[in-house]
Every structure is written in C-alpha cells, then in structure tokens.
UniProtKB/TrEMBL annotation:
A GO molecular function held by the record: ATP-dependent diacylglycerol kinase activity
Pfam families for this protein: DAGK_cat, YegS_C
Co-factor(s): Mg(2+)
Similarity annotation: Belongs to the diacylglycerol/lipid kinase family.
Keywords: ATP-binding, Kinase, Lipid biosynthesis, Lipid metabolism, Magnesium, Metal-binding, Nucleotide-binding, Phospholipid biosynthesis, Phospholipid metabolism, Transferase
GO biological process terms, semicolon-separated: phospholipid biosynthetic process
Domain of life: Bacteria
Keyword tRNA-binding: no
Protein name per Swiss-Prot or TrEMBL: Diacylglycerol kinase (ATP)
PROSITE patterns, sorted: DAGK
Species name: Weissella soli
GO CC annotation: plasma membrane
Amino acid sequence: MSKRARIIYNPTSGREAIRRDLVDILNVYEQAGYETSAFATTAAPNSALNEARRAAQAGFDLLVAAGGDGTINEVVNGIAPLEKRPMLAIIPAGTTNDYARALRIPREDPLESAKVVLQGKSALLDVGRANDTYFINIAAGGSISELTYSVPSKLKTMYGYLAYVVKGAELITQVKPMHLHVKYDDGEYNGIASMFFVALTNSVGGFESIVPDAQLDDGKFTLLIVKTTKLPEIITLITEVLNGGRHIDDPNLVYVKTEHIEIKPTNDMQVMINLDGEYGGDAPVIFDNFQQHIRMVANVDDMPPESFSQVL
C-alpha cells in the first residue's frame, strides 16, 4: 500500500504564501512517496486539531502542519493524546516560527521547507503537556509573554516580527511582579518573578541562545525563572542572552533541567500561560515531559549533532 500524507494548512498565514504554492508543495510530498491531499483550516474552533486527529485515526502516515506556531500547536494537540501517531512535518508561515527555527526548516519559502522531507531524515522529539494541553516549543508566563495576545493579527501580517519587537519594547517598561511557588525535580523556588519559561528547544521568541544547551529528545525541560522585576537587571539579562548565552549563570535567573514542574501563584494575581504563542489557560499549572513522543521531519544535517540522541 502507498503511504498517505495530509497537509493541514492555514490559508491566511504568511500572506497566503502556502495557498499560492500548494500545487507545488503537493508535488514535493508525492515525489517523497506519499499520496498527498490537503485540508484548509477554517475559523471554527480547533479546526486544525480536529482534522489532525481525524487524519491520524484514518491511518495517514504523515501529517504536514502548514502555518504559524499556533497551527502547528493545534496539529500536535490533535495527535499527541493518541496511542498511534503519524510522523509530522512542518511548513512555517507565521510571524516568529520558533519551532521551524529550532529544526532548521527554511522559514522564508514554503516550497523549500516542504523539500526537507526529501532528505528522508527524522527524529523522535519530546512533547510537553501543561495540565491538559500539549506544546512542542515553549510555555511561558509573565508580562512579556503576554505580548502575543496584544499584537493585533493585522499588524502581525503587515509587519511580522517587527510588530512583536515594538510591543515588547513597550511592555518591558510595564513588568509586573508575580509571587510564585515553583516545584521541579531537584528543588523549588518561592519568591518574586517577572517571567518564566519552560522550553523544549533553543528557540524562544526568535532568540536561539536563550537555551544554548537544548537537547530535543532528552525528556527534560529547561526551566528559566527571571527573579527580578528591575528594568536595568532585565536589560542586563537580555544583553547576556545576545552575547552567547552568558545569562545562564546570572544570579537573577533560575536555570535548571527538569522532567516535571508545578507552578502556582501565592497571591490572587492572574498568571496567564502562553503555550507555543497561544493562550493556554491560567496557573496553577503542572508541566510533564513526554520523551521522544512524536516523530518529526527535521533538517538534521544543518542542526548541531548534540540536538538529538538518534536520527531516523
């Protein structure tokens, strides 16, 4: 029997670039040996999630998530709870495309990103779960992490990543302290924080040096807690990130590897959780890591060898 692929694409992502290249993209997966069809997501809730689950249960061998980080996250949530999960490929067409950046998938040309499948290489990668919702790149909380909710879609389409930079510069002057109790494998943290990150890859908000020692299949998160709300100290941390990842030893930062995390506010402040750039509910939240849970097409040859323990 021939293998089957289903492309689940957001027709409005990336100035509709995927829709323009769709025939050529279909041909790429046909060339890779897949009988390929496509599904355009709609404005209905969980459109990509529901189609991903349907296609997985129908026995498709490969799902292609084509769109921004939100579309990719929905497809992951459609298949992650299943016992039998198809292989996953991604075609990035959003604003930050963090996960594609981590996997060295071309981010400027949908057709070139599709062609990665022709290399025939993949890896089993970790997936995180926050309470009942899965994520594949980053979970975060704090004022800066909320900027993805406050940048209008029209501005993201028109100005791309610049829209986030402008909004982030505005929000960094309005950082609010969170009072948190955080438990992780080898310890806990009680105190003030301005933000926290629970990372699976090295790419966070377009920066590739926030987690310089990321491994994508080791079964562990990288937990970062920024313990200061003082603007000069936060700017120092950002400068250290940009200067080769020197922030990991900064006394204003908790930086640990852990399989399990529990975070809860110790006051009445609402702490919204950002999962792969989308709102994922409020704390308290429990994070669990599912090691090597989804087989993912990746541009393995362009990635650091320490990113994986094995390549398929």
